Amino acid sequence: QVQLQESGPGVVRPSETLSLTCTVSGGSFSSSYWSWIRQPPGKGLEWIGYINYSGSTNYNPSLKSRVTISVDTSKYRFSLRLNSVTAADTAVYYCARREGGYPNWHFDLWGRGSLVTVSS
Amino acid sequence: QSVLTQPPSVSGAPGQRVTISCTGTSSNIGSRYDVHWYQQLPGTAPKLLMYADTYRPSGVPDRFSGSKSGTSASLAITGLQAEDEADYYCQSFDSYLGGSVFGGGTKLTVL
Fold it and tell me: Does the beta carbon of A47 lie under 8 angstroms from any beta carbon of chain B?
């Protein structure tokens, strides 16, 4: 079955760039859309954006100016870059598979999450 | 402030029925976009619980059901069990934002 695994640094300094990668195993990578979602400690979920195998993206307008999601189909993985981070970007970052057509998609598979703390 | 509004908490005794509401606006639920629900057990990733308003993924008990009317949706849980204690989130599409929006989450306590 399809599994997702996030990886990346657990601590990022303020004003620097947060980078995470999600590796997909056990299923078809090119037929799906892939998303990033985050959850600040003790708070709710926030959709960051998604990408498909051809590189087509859609971002949350509140983060769009700082976010880049990219895909590497040869390695079955996709990545998140969030620049100019502040303490408000401290969160558990989840990668997830987007299922369903536009605009009624949902997220049917999730990674375990990666806690990223912004701190000097 | 989440785009979709959920009660912060609900509670019920084992065996009882509880409902969790998710209230939106004309740019999301009111535009008939699908509502989806997730269950997040303590310390774990969210899990898809309900999709397209009323459909349960394989493995989700039929004690869970969903409904939608106007600008609101609801998740109902019957025959409440201790293992249902978790946070629940609704999600939909918002045409103004052009992407996914979530509710703030509801903590279910089984008394």
Answer: yes
Closest CB to B45: pick one of A99, A100, A113. A113
Contact B52 A104 (CB under 8 A): yes
Number of A–B residue contacts, CB under 8 Å: 65
Cis peptide before A103 (omega within 30 of 0): yes
Residues 6+ apart with CB under 8 A from A41: A90, A91, A92
Is A89 in contact with A118 (CB distance < 8 Å)?
yes
Closest by Cβ to A45, choosing from B34, B46, B57: B46
How would you write chain A as a 3-class SS string? CCEEEEECCCEECCCCCEEEEEEEECCCCCCCEEEEEEECCCCCCEEEEEEECCCCEEECCCCCCCEEEEEEHHHCEEEEEECCCCHHHCEEEEEEEEECCCCCCEEEEECCCEEEEECC
b/e per residue, B24-44, with b = 16+ CB within 10 A?
Answer: beebbbebebbbbbbbbeeee
Tell me what the mean pLDDT of segment B61-79 comes to. Answer: 97
Determine phi and psi for A119, rounding to 5 degrees. -160, 145
Chain segment A33-63, per-residue pLDDT in tens: 999 999 999 999 999 999 998 999 999 999 9
Residue B15 exposed, middle or buried by CB count within 10 Å (0-12, 13-18, 19+): exposed
Structural contact between residues A98 and A105, judged by C-beta atoms closer than 8 angstroms: yes
